Amino acid sequence: MRTERKLTRLDRVFARLDREPERPAHIDVPRMSRHRVVLFASTLAFYAAIVWAVVITSWLVRLDWQVMFFRPYQQWPEIHAFLDYYVVLGQRGPTAVMIAAWLGWRSWRQHTLRPLLTLGASLLLLNLTVGAAKLSMGRLGPHYATSVGSNEMWLGGDIFPSGHTANAVVTWGILAYLASTPRARRWLSALSAVVSLGVGLTTVYLGTHWLSDVVLGWAAGLLILLALPWFEPLIARAETGIFDLRDAWRARRRGIAPAPASPVGAPAALTPLGKPAGEQEPVVREPVAASRPVRQPGYLAPGPHLARSERTPVTPVGSRRPPQSDRVTRGTASARPLTGG
Hints:
Elements: H1 9-17, H2 34-55, H3 59-70, H4 72-75, H5 80-86, H6 92-110, H7 114-137, H8 163-177, H9 182-206, H10 211-227, H11 232-256, E1 314-315, E2 318-319
Antiparallel strand pairs: 1-2
Helix pairs in contact: 2-10, 5-9, 6-7, 6-8, 7-8, 7-10, 7-11, 8-9, 8-10, 9-10
């Protein structure tokens, strides 16, 4: 009796992974809508306002110093060990590897390079914009501050805006940007907001960033996510170019590889040197030998053909039919003379 094997939870997970992949045509590509343009302009204005407030040493700088003197890492030392690990969620290397692994699997399943190319474009924009802002404003961090109450700008630092915070917004927000359903986009947006908010406040707790650095890092990361639809045509052209290069490389490999052997035909007649065309010797064409020798069927025994009733079955232990001397083979002369009846 055949019994069906009961599927375990791991079997069900792999069964879901083996389903038919989603077609790229069904993937929703975000457009640069009017609503998104308004959000981008508002975030850009907020970004400029934060920078201006720090440059003129406004109330925001005084708040930075108050938080720094409060020293949160001394107020709540019991969570210091946990936050040392939690802040890794905002570091460029570990988060980029984790997100790239997930998006690479999606690219393979959906037969498209868009997830990986979008991640690459967002990280490139992050390095260019945030890196340029850090180097151009050169603000020192709380641990390296020189004078109380100053904005610490243009002193050779590189912490304004917060790279940890901006990286957390972009790397975790790209999952929501590439989500294929509205429900997944809402849940991933909430996850990105919680992670980036926690990473930013963790850097303030550890004393590595001013509060205004973190606020500007949130704005910098959000600007990159809002601007990504402008780069979608460039991402699509890059994907097409990569696939074209792949097809050309495959075609070149097929051209270099040896062609399959063609069937052997009749040999061409060659004219011997020094003889006119009318005196050519006849060309003897030899038959082409088969690749394998022809074998006689194993079930045909040599000797004269016997009727079914005259055959003696042979087994590994010998014949089971008693010998009959009066039977003769069909087509041979009889050993006994025929007598009249």
